Amino acid sequence: GAGVSQSPSNKVTEKGKDVELRCDPISGHTALYWYRQSLGQGLEFLIYFQGNSAPDKSGLPSDRFSAERTGGSVSTLTIQRTQQEDSAVYLCASSLTRGARTDTQYFGPGTRLTVL
Amino acid sequence: GESVGLHLPTLSVQEGDNSIINCAYSNSASDYFIWYKQESGKGPQFIIDIRSNMDKRQGQRVTVLLNKTVKHLSLQIAATQPGDSAVYFCAENLSNDYKLSFGAGTTVTVRA
Predict the structure, then answer these.
(1) Has residue A100 got a pLDDT over 60?
(2) What is the pLDDT of residue B76?
(3) Residue B110 above 50 pLDDT?
(4) Is the CB of B33 inside 8 Å of chain A's CB atoms?
(5) Residue B7 to residue B105: CA distance in whole angstroms
(6) What distance in Å separates residue B50's CA from the closest CA in chain A?
(7) Is B97 on the interface with A (CB under 8 A)?
(8) CB B23 within 8 Å of CB B4
(9) In chain A, pLDDT over 90 holds for what percent of residues?
């Protein structure tokens, strides 16, 4: 596609429910990142995928958060037993080559998650 | 902890004037810096980047300046336009890392 796409654009859920957020990276991009942006804040790194390598999960805030990337393309971020503090915009980014740190990361529009 | 931060959370600029957005970083190991622009309801959009072996880099209407001595980064926007209204983030990463660390952002409002 032309850019990174994410779905849904908005998600409202009740506390304790599980949610799945989807990211479609730019075709051909091998590196994929998830970030979280709380209201009025900068972006917080969550997880990084590069090709078939084991993902870097060092930014996940708790074991309720997990992510997978199937076939080296689409990624799903899952939050189990959602809490109100999980409310944020979840942003996905992808980059072209081997995830070299100077590869430009292109961001999707984000999913706004609201936990009631 | 060490982090990237912006000096001012908001900046109001008259259309046609030049804008300067500042960013301070504290990690001396940071050697790659990026400026992103985020419009309401959209993801961050890459503007310009700079490596630590440079002190200035120019793009279309934008210039990034890096002062490693005082750990300061700035973004200059020439002839600011209404479409420049957005939140601007500086981001950095370390020489052995790929994760970006973002500042809190500066909201730029362009007055007609």
Answers:
(1) no
(2) 97
(3) yes
(4) no
(5) 9
(6) 10
(7) yes
(8) yes
(9) 72
Question: Rounded to whole angstroms, how far apart are CA atoms A82 and A15?
Answer: 5
**A31, A40, A110 member nearest B43 (Cβ):** A110
Cβ-defined contact of B41 to A48 (cutoff 8 Å): no
Query: To which residue do tokens 């992808």 refer?
Result: A94
* Out of A75-84, B63-72, B86-95, least confident range: B86-95
Rounded distance between C-alpha atoms, residue B84 and residue A97, angstroms: 30
* pLDDT at site B2: 36
C-alpha span between A40 and A80 (Å, rounded): 24
pLDDT top residue among B4 and B41: B41
Cα(B104)–Cα(A39) distance, integer angstroms: 10
**Which residue from A43, A56, A110 is facing B102, i.e. has the nearest CB?**
A43
Bridge partners (DSSP) of residue A67 are A77
Q: For residues B91 and B101, is the Cβ–Cβ distance under 8 A?
A: yes
**Could you tell me if B44 lies within 8 Å of chain A, comparing CB atoms?**
yes
A104 contacts on B by Cβ (under 8 Å): 34, 46, 49
**What is the model's pLDDT at position A104?**
84
* Residues linked to residue B37 through DSSP beta bridges, in sequence order: B45, B88
Cα B102 → chain centroid = 10
Chain A nearest-CA distance from B55, in A, is 17
